[in-house]
Amino acid sequence: MGHSVGQVARLAGVTVRTLHHYDEIGLLSPGQRTASGYRRYTDADLERLQHVLFYRELGFPLEEIAVILDEPGSDTLTHLRRQHELLSRRIGRLREMTAAIERAMEANTMGISLTPEERFELFGDFRPEEHEAEAGELWGGTEAFEQSRRRMAKMTKDDWARFTAEAARTTEGFAKAFTDGLPADGEVAMGLAEEHRAHITRWCYDCSYEIHRGLGEMYVADPRFAANYEPLAPGLTRYIRDAFHANADRAGS
Amino acid sequence: MGHSVGQVARLAGVTVRTLHHYDEIGLLSPGQRTASGYRRYTDADLERLQHVLFYRELGFPLEEIAVILDEPGSDTLTHLRRQHELLSRRIGRLREMTAAIERAMEANTMGISLTPEERFELFGDFRPEEHEAEAGELWGGTEAFEQSRRRMAKMTKDDWARFTAEAARTTEGFAKAFTDGLPADGEVAMGLAEEHRAHITRWCYDCSYEIHRGLGEMYVADPRFAANYEPLAPGLTRYIRDAFHANADRAGS
DNA sequence: CTTGACCCTCACGTAACGGCAGGCTCCACT
DNA sequence: AGTGGAGCCTGCCGTTACGTGAGGGTCAAG
């Protein structure tokens, strides 16, 4: 019982040498050794290794990892929570970088050259910032986002009018279905959801079922959206969201 | 003309030694030297440095960076695009790690211990894209979300009318500021942003600056929102988002 | 004409391993 | 019982991307 270096290395996707190194510096010493001196890693060792690799991935120096893993009164859950926190912060950082890249691209295509300060805005300060779950950020900077921006930039006033008119019709359809007591996962509601998805795809960007789910969540999360629906019928917003989900489920996505 | 090592170092948030190093290995040699041997970095040097730091951040070894930056026929835009792509991939990876952490937390609180294989699933192989699976779930179940739902459920038709009227006034304010050519990070725009944030907080839920940023991104990301603003003035949506960000920056958040 | 901030070039130190040498151990097969 | 190959051990030197002075010029301000 217990795992050999080679097994652990394969499992964790690191080299044997790395495990030797962690043993040398006392970061992760196997719980046991065989009579002939072979390393034997216990399950507890594996858990520790998991945490080590996580913190390492996030750029912590090994010495510091040793400290935080050995600090008394810290259990598994503490670390998982901290790692979760660190991850979202890091994602935030990368998203800022994405935004910076987009600005740079824009400046580039417009032939403007950035000032030195603008150029490095994103690198200099890594703010010790509180993060908060950001809603629409999920797909900010994705392909769909770009597509949408490009297409919308080209739309005329007339286009907008037709676009909103079409949207209004779908909304009214939802309102009617809802007040009529039709289920959100029924034929009618799902049909309207699909219509809406097509609407977005036609006018804005390629709206996958997954993205469509996201939109549904956004509609209930943000009151500005709800303001379009709730006055028609209280609860309509959530009804629409549920319809989007049902429709996505039906499509097997 | 040209910048000294110290200036460049401060700008880019690296040490002088790092710049010396990049010079030594030929990754980034300053365009000129003064008579006394001082390094002088040109604007082109700065742009190169920008790319160097980006690729470095993403884990590329310096030697490789030198190769891809020197490869013939690659201009700025090529690199920006590639960086953008790399960033989104990296974000995807981190999101998978987040999901893994969440699974681990669940297992932990339920007293289940993971098998060795499960433990390292996320590290070893980076899977062919199958993420985004839980798109909307990010907001679902958060505090703000629940709060919003509870409050909105209690709103009467009159409440909605007042709510939308208030929102409309803010929107018109933005439209005017925008067409007047006022900057998004100016007093007026930021004031309107703050007004909007207060509006949300009063009617819906406790809207932190971070959440407010998120809303701004949502406005540009979703055409249904844009439909409210773009017809008033093309580009207004992004203007509003920028104002939200500026306002959040001002609040030090 | 001095002083403090800034710059230069060696040159050695460090972190986190990679890689190899030289030698034991294990077990499956003949 | 013997043997071959996979796996393990402990050194030990190499590498990357800098950190950290040492020892000494440079430059604008007072």
From TrEMBL, chains A, B:
Cited SUPFAM superfamilies: Antibiotic binding domain of TipA-like multidrug resistance regulators, Putative DNA-binding domain
Keyword annotations from UniProtKB, A to Z: Activator, DNA-binding, Transcription, Transcription regulation
Signal peptide stretch: none
Highest taxon, organism lineage: Bacteria
Domain HTH merR-type, first and last residues per copy: 1-71
GO molecular function, one term: DNA binding
Keyword Cell membrane included in the entry's annotation: no
CDD domains: HTH_TipAL-Mta
Pfam families documented for this protein: MerR_1 (PF13411), TipAS (PF07739)
InterPro entries: DNA-bd_dom_put_sf, MerR-type_HTH_dom, MerR_fam, TipA-like_antibiotic-bd, TipAS_dom
UniProt cross-references to PANTHER family, sorted A to Z: HTH-TYPE TRANSCRIPTIONAL ACTIVATOR MTA (PTHR30204:SF90), REDOX-CYCLING DRUG-SENSING TRANSCRIPTIONAL ACTIVATOR SOXR (PTHR30204)
Protein name (record): HTH-type transcriptional activator TipA
Lineage: Bacteria, Bacillati, Actinomycetota, Actinomycetes, Streptosporangiales
